[in-house]
Design brief:
Strand content: 15-25%
CATH architecture of the largest domain: 2-Layer Sandwich
Oligomer: single chain
CATH superfamily of the largest domain: ATPase, nucleotide binding domain
Strand order of the largest sheet: 3-2-1-4-7-13
Shape: globular
Helix content: 25-40%
CATH topology of the largest domain: Nucleotidyltransferase, domain 5
Distance between the termini: 19 Å
Number of domains: 2
């Protein structure tokens, strides 16, 4: 092993259930060497969730949580190294996405916490973070960024492909077979965030395993139509979204407009259908030739959601990214290891056609070991 070969990627998504940590190398060929899922402490998760919504004393909360989460990210990286039996001094860099607490591209900013200085200090490894703000400074959305990695790893001249990431939010990457056609990608709306919040609100767990609860309900067509009226679904890309648009307060406001009170399981079924419709409608809106569709993210394990996606895209081949050589749970963490590599090589890693930036940019801030 040489120091230049290995990178760590760290990812904490909208769902805030865990930190995904991967040990990878990209040369001479891509290899996922080890992975680790580090659980998010309940109290830390509660505080981060509170910070994602407007409140009092936000600067104090942000400062404290920035350090606390940096320590947690460092712990995740160190646990990964212990599991893999790999020394820290063999790692070229850590790429850390951080935890998004506010995403406001309309105002020109996106804020992630999880102090990379703390990660570098605790691990002794150069840490690259803050990947979104340079793209925003160049007029972009700062998101989604992962389509650039999808292109590098998954694009083929043999077939049109779509990579659909089903995390807290859903996003798609369109990978045309024609090498002269640019890659496109954007957020399509909520994936798991509303379903997770609703099942937690009803005290039935943190997430709906396999969509089992949603499968017991019936889609409420009136509720679905009101949800689909959200302006985000009708906006043209480039576009990105987050809890700022899709959150429990918005859902409660919609429920109050209904004029009737649906059963909780019917709401869950409707939220699942909302994810399936918004994702599939976005894919259908592009002129792809019999595209292969590959799912990743936590929602790829929701068998009910996958069933509804298959029903709406019945003429398409639908698999998980496992078929392309990368488990769907580790795609995003691997992407940020790749971003760290690109940053240290002084190579751009945004796609202007995706984010709307004025041009390619080198992303990320480097905190040396």
């Amino acid at each position: 092993m040489t120091r230049s070969e290995f990178y760590i990627g760290l990812m904490s998504g909208t769902s805030l259930d865990s930190i995904d940590a991967v040990l990878v190398r990209f040369t001479p060929s891509f290899e996922l060497c080890s992975h680790y899922s580090y659980p998010m402490h309940t109290e830390l998760r509660r505080q981060i969730m509170q910070l994602t919504q407007s409140g009092n004393d936000e600067i104090e909360q942000l400062g404290r949580l920035d350090i606390a989460l940096g320590e947690t990210f460092a712990d995740a990286a160190l646990c990964l190294l212990r599991q893999a039996g790999v020394a820290a001094d063999t790692i070229k860099a850590v790429g850390s996405h951080g935890q998004t607490v506010r995403h406001r591209p309309d105002a020109g900013f996106s804020l992630q916490i999880g102090d990379p200085n703390t990660i570098a200090e605790r691990t002794g490894i150069t840490t690259v973070a803050d990947f979104r703000r340079r793209d925003l400074a160049a007029g972009g959305q700062g998101a989604p960024l992962v389509p650039a990695f999808h292109e590098a790893l998954f694009r083929t001249p043999v077939a049109d492909r779509v990579v659909a990431n089903l995390g807290g939010m859903a996003n798609i990457t369109l990978l045309p077979a024609d090498p002269m056609t640019p890659v496109l990608g954007y957020d399509t709306g909520p994936a798991n965030v509303l379903m997770d919040g609703w099942i937690e609100h009803n005290r039935l767990g943190c997430y709906d395993r396999d969509g089992a609860w949603a499968a017991t309900g019936t889609v409420d067509s009136k509720l679905l139509n009101i949800l689909l009226a959200h302006p985000f679904f009708h906006a043209a890309p480039p576009k990105s979204t987050g809890r700022e648009d899709f959150n429990p307060n918005w859902l409660n406001t919609v429920l109050a407009q209904l004029g009737h009170e649906p059963a909780p399981e019917d709401v869950q079924a409707t939220l699942l259908e909302l994810t399936a419709i918004s994702l599939c409608d976005a894919i259908r809106s592009h002129p792809l030739m019999e595209p292969e569709i590959y799912l990743c993210g936590g929602g790829s394990h929701n068998s009910r959601l996958v069933e509804r996606i298959r029903a709406r895209l019945s003429d398409c081949r639908i698999d998980s990214t496992t078929l392309l050589g990368l488990d769907p749970d580790w795609v995003e963490a691997t992407a940020f290891a790749w971003f760290a590599m690109r940053t240290l090589q002084y190579q751009p890693s945004n796609l202007p056609e995706v984010t709307g930036a004025r041009g390619p940019r080198i992303l990320g801030t480097i905190c040396p070991a």
